[in-house]
């Protein structure tokens, strides 16, 4: 009885994804961690080699733990327009939109991508579990909400040779797919959906298939990429790429509002660099009144991209103005192998005596059990650290 009891689904701490048999074969570092209840590798063999697959060849990462929800119904567009900050009427069928949603106080609950398949048919992909919030937000709307996290297997295929690899997989017309576009292909009696989306600011795609066909997709993808430098990657390599792109990550660069304990630890879209996603001209959406007040009064914080002197990543470092007055803190930091820069994202207080010049990071690092402290000069950057033209090229190059 004891053995049967331990095998119950809800007793398992972390579940394998549909791709787990292939991931386990490749894992050399036993670097498994829990991503929303699923086993996910931080790396397979070497983080640096995996990172360079993103920038120089073709990287493949298991995206299946991403929380996925299907929203269908006559009021699906109105439901999303009421919940998220962007104008959903502008998202046409066959397209993907990035957005955030807030609580009544205008603080971000989560960000995610919204796939519009048809007039009344959507899929939402989010970092956090959102089923309860979706059901609360659906009050009064004629919509059906279904969680598909376990049903849909997903891979992110990123890098300059990603199109060349997919071009060998009998996906006619893929060369016409534009950024944030969607295409559907018949696949072994089912369907393969390809979206030109990703988290790396490089040429790349995401592949979506029913879980039963996951291993077939993996095997065919790696066979197609044999001569194009294809490599499986973990979350550590992806994290370097997303900081280079200036992309924020929930739980790193902001704490979701429904997880904060102190009220001043949450953030609005304006405070995490996503003000461009807020459409205050919409008649109503959750958090609109609070965001209008913030727009009038000003925000408490701002998220900035920092180029930092030296080569010591400023993980969790405080940022000071003139080495004296505390101005904020680093939320994400990496050494960029491609840009050859020490870079970071930081949340800074907005105040008259906190200008964006003469900023310094107080960085602590350890060598041979000895802790060192250095002051490193910081410069605010307006543009992403990495944003190559191939990211948007249509048709993509056959690298």
Structural notes for this entry:
This protein is α+β, with helices and mostly antiparallel strands. The chain folds into three domains: 13-66 and 150-245, Probable tRNA modification gtpase trme, domain 1 (Gyrase A, domain 2, 2-Layer Sandwich); 67-147, Aminomethyltransferase beta-barrel domains (Alpha-Beta Plaits), CATH 3.30.70; 300-381, Elongation Factor Tu (Ef-tu), domain 3 (Beta Barrel), CATH 2.40.30. The chain contains nine helices and 19 strands. The strands form four sheets. The protein has a six-stranded mixed sheet with strand order 10-11-12-9-3-13. The chain has a six-stranded antiparallel barrel with strand order 14-17-16-15-18-19. It has a five-stranded antiparallel sheet with strand order 5-6-7-4-8, covered by helices on one side. Helix 3 (47-56) crosses helix 8 (235-245). It is globular, with a radius of gyration of 22 Å. The N and C termini lie far apart (56 Å). Residues 1-7 have low confidence and may be disordered.
Question: Which helices and strands, and how do they pair?
Answer:
Layout (H helix, E strand, L loop, with lengths): L1 H5 L13 H7 L5 E4 L2 E4 L5 H10 L1 E5 L4 E6 L3 H8 L11 E8 L5 E11 L2 E6 L4 H7 L6 E4 L4 E7 L3 H5 L15 E6 L2 E6 L8 E7 L3 H11 L5 E3 L2 H11 L42 H10 L3 E8 L9 E4 L3 E12 L4 E9 L9 E9 L2 E12 L18
């Amino acid at each position: 009885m004891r053995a049967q009891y331990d095998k119950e689904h809800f007793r398992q701490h972390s579940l394998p994804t549909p791709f787990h048999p292939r991931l386990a074969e490749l894992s050399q570092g036993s670097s498994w961690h829990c991503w929303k209840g699923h086993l996910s590798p931080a790396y397979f063999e070497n983080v640096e080699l995996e990172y360079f697959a993103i920038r120089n060849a073709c990287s493949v990462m298991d995206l299946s733990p991403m929380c996925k929800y299907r929203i269908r119904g006559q009021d699906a567009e109105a439901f999303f327009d009421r919940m998220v900050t962007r104008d959903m009427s502008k998202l046409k069928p066959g397209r993907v939109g990035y957005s955030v949603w807030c609580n009544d106080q205008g603080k971000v609950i989560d960000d995610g991508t919204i796939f519009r398949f048809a007039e009344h048919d959507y899929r939402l992909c989010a970092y956090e579990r959102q089923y309860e919030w979706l059901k609360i937000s659906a009050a009064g709307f004629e919509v059906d909400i279904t969680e598909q996290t376990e049903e849909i297997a997903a891979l992110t295929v990123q890098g300059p040779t990603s199109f060349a690899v997919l071009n060998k997989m009998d996906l006619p017309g893929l060369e016409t797919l534009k950024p944030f576009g969607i295409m559907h292909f018949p696949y072994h009696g089912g369907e393969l959906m390809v979206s030109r989306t990703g988290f790396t600011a490089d040429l790349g795609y995401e592949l979506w298939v029913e879980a039963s066909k996951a291993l077939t997709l993996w095997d065919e993808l790696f066979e197609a990429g044999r001569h194009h430098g294809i490599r499986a990657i973990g979350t550590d390599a992806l994290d370097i790429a997303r900081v280079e792109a200036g992309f924020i990550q929930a739980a790193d660069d902001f704490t979701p509002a429904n997880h904060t304990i102190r009220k001043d630890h949450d953030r609005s879209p304006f405070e995490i660099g996503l003000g461009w996603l807020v459409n205050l001209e919409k008649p109503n959406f959750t958090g609109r009144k609070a965001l209008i007040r913030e727009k009038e009064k000003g925000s408490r914080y701002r998220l900035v991209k920092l180029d930092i002197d030296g080569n010591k990543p400023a993980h969790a470092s405080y940022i000071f103005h003139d080495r004296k007055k505390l101005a904020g803190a680093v939320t994400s930091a990496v050494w960029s192998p491609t840009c050859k820069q020490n870079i970071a994202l930081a949340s800074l207080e907005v105040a008259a005596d906190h200008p964006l010049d003469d900023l310094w990071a107080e960085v602590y690092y350890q060598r041979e059990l000895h802790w060192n402290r250095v002051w490193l000069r910081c410069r605010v950057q307006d543009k992403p650290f990495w944003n190559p033209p191939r990211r948007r090229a249509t048709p993509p190059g056959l690298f």
